[in-house]
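Chain A, query sequence.
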Amino acid sequence: MMHIRHPASWRLAVGTLALGLAVLSPPALAAPRLAQTHVPEAHRLRGSGSWQRGNRTPQRWSIDLTRRDDSSFEGRVTLVGSPLLHIGTLRGTLNGRHLSGSVDDDDGNQAATFVGVVRPSGEWVGTYQDRTGEIGRWTWSGTDQ
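Chain A, predicted structure.
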């Protein structure tokens, strides 16, 4: 180890070290870059389908949906014949062909949860459970807007 006792020699050693590090450092370290953020691309779909409890007559619904490339989706759902909800917000995620999510009323209260799959035809099908415990089946077919 080298000992530097003279102040001028000390300044020269520190300056030489700093210059050496600046020359050896890659550009990414020499000049900080602005963070690049990824904005998920949105794919808008509109469609209709049905939901049904047991052997009852299927009820109709329509959904305007935004599907993002980060595997999430969100939209507005309009239900016909539901005592719990007429209009609400649907949110969920896709994991391959499998999907799951929830439907909330406009006050933010969860009306139902759902799971399902995307068929090769593009149709979404699955089951739901509403906040009263009712369990049923649902389908939805969306097309590009």
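Helices lie at 7-24, 27-30. The chain has two domains: 1-33, 42-144.
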